[in-house]
Each structure stands twice: as structure tokens, then as C-alpha cells.
TrEMBL record:
<keyword id="KW-0139">CF(1)</keyword>
<dbReference type="GO" id="GO:0046933">
    <property type="term" value="F:proton-transporting ATP synthase activity, rotational mechanism"/>
</dbReference>
<dbReference type="InterPro" id="IPR001469">
    <property type="entry name" value="ATP_synth_F1_dsu/esu"/>
</dbReference>
<dbReference type="GO" id="GO:0005886">
    <property type="term" value="C:plasma membrane"/>
</dbReference>
<protein>
    <submittedName>
        <fullName>F0F1-type ATP synthase epsilon subunit</fullName>
    </submittedName>
</protein>
<keyword id="KW-0472">Membrane</keyword>
<keyword id="KW-0813">Transport</keyword>
<feature type="domain" description="ATP synthase F1 complex delta/epsilon subunit N-terminal">
    <location>
        <begin position="3"/>
        <end position="82"/>
    </location>
</feature>
<dbReference type="GO" id="GO:0045259">
    <property type="term" value="C:proton-transporting ATP synthase complex"/>
</dbReference>
<keyword id="KW-0066">ATP synthesis</keyword>
<dbReference type="InterPro" id="IPR036771">
    <property type="entry name" value="ATPsynth_dsu/esu_N"/>
</dbReference>
<keyword id="KW-0406">Ion transport</keyword>
<dbReference type="Pfam" id="PF02823">
    <property type="entry name" value="ATP-synt_DE_N"/>
</dbReference>
<comment type="similarity">
    <text>Belongs to the ATPase epsilon chain family.</text>
</comment>
<dbReference type="InterPro" id="IPR020546">
    <property type="entry name" value="ATP_synth_F1_dsu/esu_N"/>
</dbReference>
Length: 86
């Protein structure tokens, strides 16, 4: 079972796809999400969003100034600024 993840900035969609694990930084600390996670609405802090796809591929993005929402195995991260790291 996988999460559907959408990461968007104020200007564009940064990444969308399925993942087995996502770790993001909120104002209260880091939080990890897997399929079946309870609903959450949190304020995003400046930091990394680490996405592990079902095949093990790792994707890292920076994000700040926004929020994240988790419900029904769908994680949406909305940031004022977000970009994939190379």
C-alpha cells in the first residue's frame, strides 16, 4: 500500500507520485508518514522533505512557509517555496 504525495510551491507542482515513506519538518518537529497514517494538518517549517518511493528511490526537496495535510493515504504539502535537490 502506498501514499499518494503531492508537493507544490506557490508557482508550480514540484513533485507528484506514490511513496512508501515521507518525512517532513513541521514547526513541532519532524514527522514521518506511511500508508494508514491518521489525519494530520500541520504547519511546515523550513527544511527537507524526504520521499522514499516504493521501489526504494529517494527524492529530497527543500520546502518552507506552508502546511501539510494527510488524509486517506493522500499527503499534500503546500509550500511558499519548494524545490527538488539534485
Amino acid at each position: 500500500m502506498a501514499l499518494t504525495v503531492t508537493l507544490v510551491s506557490a508557482e508550480a507542482e514540484v513533485w507528484h507520485g506514490e511513496a512508501s515513506l515521507v518525512v517532513a519538518k513541521t514547526v513541532e518537529g519532524e514527522i514521518g508518514f506511511m500508508a494508514g497514517h491518521e489525519p494530520v494538518l500541520a504547519i511546515l517549517a523550513e527544511g527537507q522533505v524526504r520521499i522514499t518511493r516504493s521501489n526504494g528511490e529517494k527524492i529530497v526537496a527543500t520546502a518552507e512557509d506552508g502546511f501539510l495535510s494527510m488524509e486517506n493515504d493522500e499527503l499534500t504539502i503546500v509550500a511558499g517555496n519548494a524545490a527538488l535537490q539534485s
